């Protein structure tokens, strides 16, 4: 399998051949891709939200904000529209 084919394979897996032609012309580069330290830091950073239960904390904080805004709007007879929380 040639190198260019492997570069667009993940896109094709999701979108079929729809973006194939455009993906062949993409140039992707990064400053730190060959740095072991940068890669190790990136991988470690991925695990921090899970370790700290960050997603659940953000969900609870958002729900708290949602609920308090609704309470304040009701207390002051102001109509607001929020997405379900």
Task: Describe this protein's structure.
It is flat and about 55 Å long. The N and C termini lie far apart (47 Å). It is built from four helices and no strands. The chain has helices at 3-15, 20-23, 36-51, 54-75. By secondary structure, the protein is mainly α. 65% of the residues lie in helices and 0% in strands.
Which labels suit this protein?
disordered N terminus; flat; single chain; 85 residues; mainly alpha
**Helix/sheet category:** mainly alpha
**Residues in helices, as a percent range:** 55-70%
User: N-to-C terminal Cα separation, in Å?
Assistant: 47 Å
Rg estimate, integer Å: 22 Å
Q: Sketch the major β-sheet.
A: none
What amount of the residues lies in strands? Answer: under 5%
Principal-axes geometry comes out as flat
* Tally of helical runs: 4
Q: How many extended strands?
A: 0
Unreliable stretches, pLDDT < 50, 5 or more residues? 1-8
Average pLDDT for all residues: 80
Order of SSEs: HHHH
Summarize the topology.
Elements: H1 3-15, H2 20-23, H3 36-51, H4 54-75
In short:
This protein is mostly helical and 85 residues long. It is built from four helices and no strands.
């Amino acid at each position: 399998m040639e190198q260019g084919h492997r570069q667009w394979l993940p896109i094709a897996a999701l979108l079929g051949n729809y973006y194939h032609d455009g993906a062949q012309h993409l140039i992707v580069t990064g400053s730190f891709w060959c740095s072991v330290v940068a890669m190790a830091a990136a991988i470690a950073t991925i695990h921090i939200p899970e370790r700290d239960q960050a997603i659940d904390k953000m969900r609870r904080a958002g729900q708290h904000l949602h609920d308090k805004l609704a309470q304040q709007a009701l207390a002051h007879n102001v109509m607001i529209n929020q997405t379900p929380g």
